[in-house]
Design brief:
Oligomer: single chain
Helix content: 40-55%
Strand order of the largest sheet: 1-2
Number of helices: 4
Amino acid sequence: MPQISDVLAQLTAEQFEDRAKHLAPVDTGYLVDHIVTDQVAPGAYKVESQAGYSGFQEFGFQHYRDGFIPGKFFFTGALNYCLAFLEQGGAAQIVRAEMVARIEPPSDD
């Protein structure tokens, strides 16, 4: 059975991925389709955008004709969202739900 901290890490990574996909700019959908979460160790997850142009969309870039195109900050926004959730008691909610799920009902013996 996984540790509660592992469950919290997994759920937070999944929430981060979902929020980043929600905030990411969409033209063809390629960027959204390439935001992924991978488990790198027990209780450790990596969320990344595998689209080569992700950094330009996140931080902005200088266009040769249109000037500076500001960033969309979709990863930064996802990070801020998850941090606020955890700071406002979200971790406690997740841990509480996991504890309740682990309680076995009494047997009829």
